[in-house]
Amino acid sequence: MRYIRYAFLACLGVALVSVALANRGVVTLSLLPATLAEFLGLNHQISLPLFVVIFGGIVTGLLIGFLWEWMREYKHRAEASRKAREVHTLERQLRREKRRGAGPKDEVLALLDETS
């Protein structure tokens, strides 16, 4: 399995290098369209090789996707945290009940004592 991963990473590296070599032309990125930039006075431009723009777009898309998914799963993480606290509280109550009485007076506690 390790060799398959190395082969995949090598193929990915070759593909990324070939894309970078094929797209070395310089492009100009503008913050706003020309007429709007002149009107607002925000004529910011930067010149970069095209492969930097492509890879930057991929990385930006991945980061936005990860952030979106992290925010979407917040309710699941909060529920899991609440359940973990509830389990911890119930375990603490069970230990307290076991210490309180010498013999279990409840059928459920007797079954729990038999299994542990």
UniProtKB/TrEMBL annotation:
<dbReference type="InterPro" id="IPR010445">
    <property type="entry name" value="LapA_dom"/>
</dbReference>
<protein>
    <recommendedName>
        <fullName>Lipopolysaccharide assembly protein A domain-containing protein</fullName>
    </recommendedName>
</protein>
<feature type="domain" description="Lipopolysaccharide assembly protein A">
    <location>
        <begin position="45"/>
        <end position="94"/>
    </location>
</feature>
<keyword id="KW-0812">Transmembrane</keyword>
<keyword id="KW-1133">Transmembrane helix</keyword>
<keyword id="KW-0472">Membrane</keyword>
<dbReference type="Pfam" id="PF06305">
    <property type="entry name" value="LapA_dom"/>
</dbReference>
<feature type="transmembrane region" description="Helical">
    <location>
        <begin position="46"/>
        <end position="68"/>
    </location>
</feature>
<keyword id="KW-1003">Cell membrane</keyword>
<dbReference type="GO" id="GO:0005886">
    <property type="term" value="C:plasma membrane"/>
</dbReference>
